[in-house]
From TrEMBL:
One of its GO terms (cellular component) is cytosol. It comes from the Bacteria. Residues 6-63 form the HTH lysR-type domain. One of its GO terms (molecular function) is DNA-binding transcription factor activity. This is LysR family transcriptional regulator. Keywords: DNA-binding, Transcription, Transcription regulation. It comes from Escherichia coli. Belongs to the LysR transcriptional regulatory family. PANTHER family: HTH-TYPE TRANSCRIPTIONAL REGULATOR YBHD (PTHR30419), LYSR FAMILY TRANSCRIPTIONAL REGULATOR (PTHR30419:SF14).
Amino acid sequence: MTKLQLKYRELKIISVIAASENISHAATVLGIAQANVSKYLADFESKVGLKVFDRTTRQLMLTPFGTALLPYINDMLDRNEQLNNFIADYKHEKRGRVTIYAPTGIITYLSKHVIDKIKDIGDITLSLKTCNLERNAFYEGVEFPDDCDVLISYAPPKDESLVASFIIQYAVTAYASQRYLEKHPISRPDELEHHSCILIDSMMIDDANIWRFNVAGSKEVRDYRVKGNYVCDNTQSALELARNHLGIVVCARQKCAERPARRHAGALLSAPV
């Protein structure tokens, strides 16, 4: 059987056409003439002796052969990219894709305060992806996504051998808006059970969160079971609910300071717990 001499560009063109279902769009993405895209596709189909796309509809649709072929093409393209990245890394070139996963708050912090400090990014593509913690993540660990290079998380991964370093340790406390505290005063943490607490999904146990506070004037730590009408999968959303006077939220002091401290603008005050 004669081996087919498949060209990288042909495979790339087929992959892009399959994603866009349109030769014109594919040509724009690839930065080549539409006529050349059509020619590469025709040459490939002639070479293999089978149609990859059905041209009887407005949009190009994969034939059964094309549907079966596409995963192999994409896998080959991915392996080629990995090979190029490996060679570039070995030569210490600044190129390739680095994918960072983190919860909304951390991604926001990186975007505001870290990414612009990179002096020379070279040809690196930095991909920031939001990965909010799933329910029970604090107790069971976090899944490491397949395409992830760096995972920054409040909770450890399920496979703790993947931990590269602990970045920072910080304390959290309870916050609420002035309007909420005036309407619903609180003086001790054991009063939290009578309040509307804004819950974090990854900390859920049944229908509640467990909040941990130091006993005033000592190093003793106690756990408090809290409930509420609102559950968020990220701290940013929980803070906005608290700023709108909907309850008490637990978070780090730095998170509350990110918004101008004008009380009429929804500033959060430390709840006396």
